[in-house]
């Protein structure tokens, strides 16, 4: 089998597994933030969390497939590993950036939700 096809196969398998692992972790742990942001509305939080999950998969798997191409020859196992390390490293960096972007969005929304709750508490009740 061609060395580039072997590299492509490993790259797609590893990047897909990494994306699924990170997505499941974000999905599982993001729910509590979203429930808090949406003031206990679990149905809305679950719905938004599912939409975020789909977007996460689309962006990350799309990027992995988009960057699949290798424009140089691969002659041996060492070059396979070196090529994989560059490509997988790029995917890990993108996943890390997406993770921190999600956290930033969650904390920004939570901060806004807490501020709104405090405003409502300070308003005189009629």
Draw up the topology in text.
Blueprint: H1 3-37, H2 42-66, H3 77-122
Molecular structure report:
With 126 residues, the protein is an all-alpha fold. Helices cover 84% and strands 0% of the residues. The chain contains three helices and no strands. The chain has helices at residues 3-37, 42-66, 77-122. It is elongated and about 75 Å long. The chain starts with a helix and ends with a helix.
Helix content: over 70%
Query: Number of folding domains?
Result: 1
In this structure, how is the largest beta sheet organized? Answer: none
Q: So what's the oligomer here?
A: single chain
Mean of pLDDT: 87
How many helical elements?
Answer: 3
Low-confidence stretches: none
Shape category = elongated
Order of helices and strands: HHH
Rg from C-alpha positions?
A: 20 Å
Beta strands, count = 0
Distance between the termini: 77 Å
Structural class label: mainly alpha
Proportion of β residues? under 5%
Short descriptors:
84% helix; mainly alpha; elongated; 126 residues
Summarize the structure.
By secondary structure, this protein is mostly helical. The chain has helices at 3-37, 42-66, 77-122.
